[in-house]
Design goal:
The chain is mainly alpha-helical. It is built from 14 helices and five strands. The strands form two sheets. The chain has a three-stranded antiparallel beta sheet, with no helix packed on it. A two-stranded antiparallel sheet has the order 4-5. β4 (135-137) and β5 form a beta hairpin. α10 (226-237) packs antiparallel against α11 and α12 (271-281) packs antiparallel against α13.
Length: 326
């Protein structure tokens, strides 16, 4: 009896889908990661890659803007921390938005010192990459910008012009600028005490940018806390070397600069106070020439710090770079 030979089955045609999956599982992970196209830079930020050829990107924000709001002034010179970065995916960034809008632990009341609150606000904005939104074009030197938080005295004498500058920037906001402006404004209002916020809310409009909210806040404090600043003015008027141990004029100068800075930042500095300061130092009958020169420089410096001058001579521009310590 002849043994029947088995016929081999015909070759199977592999399923393209299953075959592709089998091949992919055998390949290194790097070969199956699809390259992501580099996103376009935000108007006021930069696009960064996690590492070379990773194909994964994030945004970095913070820094001084150009005076036409076309980009950052010196993006490579920024000192950024982790909180200045944003994921490209807006959903992934929702948690970090909470911290950017979270109020300061110690909320501001009208009896608090503005200078300390100002420093805390600017620190928060810079820490979270929100400081760019606080800038307006310099009303004196149009080729540069100033933060209204640290230089609001330069804008307080003409709020309508400041609002025009704010609207010019606002007209060029991209979606990130709008988001950051909303977050900065939310943070500021949340950092005011309930009594202060209730009194201040009537001063602002829903469409005000952060810069205008801050300037209106300064105006609000100027009109509601004038008695506090009147007391500071009296302190300057009554300054005398005899009030300091050993008639130490260096200590006296430090006190004068400290008070004048607080008045200046609140928009309450008066030109006549400069004369009071100079007169206080001229009390001694004899004075070294170097001290006379210092007083002359101090007088000009204080006038410039009041930001009432609209024209700057070359000498004044040079003096403007001096700090109160100088």
């Amino acid at each position: 009896m002849t043994q029947q030979q088995s016929v081999p089955p015909p070759p199977r045609t592999p399923n393209p889908t299953s075959a592709q999956a089998q091949i992919q599982t055998q390949l290194p992970a790097t070969t199956i990661t699809a390259a992501t196209q580099r996103p376009q830079d935000p108007r006021m930020g930069t696009t960064e890659e996690t590492f070379n050829n990773s194909g994964e990107y994030y945004y970095a924000f913070g820094g001084e803007p150009l005076p036409d709001w076309s980009g950052l002034s010196n993006p490579d010179d920024r000192l950024l921390n982790d909180l200045c970065y944003r994921p490209v995916d807006p959903i992934a960034g929702q948690k970090s938005s909470y911290y950017r809008t979270k109020a300061l632990q110690d909320k501001f009341s009208k009896t608090d010192k503005l200078l300390q609150f100002q420093k805390k606000v600017m620190k928060h904005l810079s820490k979270h990459g929100l400081d760019t939104i606080s800038y307006l074009r310099n009303p004196v030197e149009a080729s540069s910008c100033l933060s209204v938080v640290t230089h609001h005295a330069r804008f307080m004498s003409d709020l309508p012009s400041a609002e025009t500058l704010s609207n010019e920037f606002k007209a060029n906001f991209d979606k990130w600028d709008k988001k950051h402006d909303f977050e900065a404004r939310t943070f500021l209002l949340a950092s005011l005490s309930s009594d202060c916020l209730t009194s201040f809310e009537s001063y602002i409009n829903e469409d005000d940018t952060f810069t205008m909210v801050w300037l209106k806040f300064i105006k609000f404090l100027t009109t509601t806390t004038s008695k506090t600043y009147d007391k500071l003015k009296d302190k300057i008027r009554n300054l005398k070397p005899q009030h300091f141990e050993g008639q130490n004029i260096e200590t006296m100068a430090q006190q004068a600069v400290l008070i004048a800075t607080e008045l200046d930042q609140a928009g309450h500095f008066d030109h006549n106070l400069t004369l009071n300061i100079v007169d206080a130092f001229y009390v001694p009958t004899k004075m070294p020439k170097a001290l006379s020169i210092m007083l002359s420089t101090l007088s000009e410096l204080m006038l410039i710090s009041a930001f009432k001058l609209h024209c700057f001579t070359p000498r004044m521009i040079k003096i403007k770079s001096l700090s109160p310590q100088n």
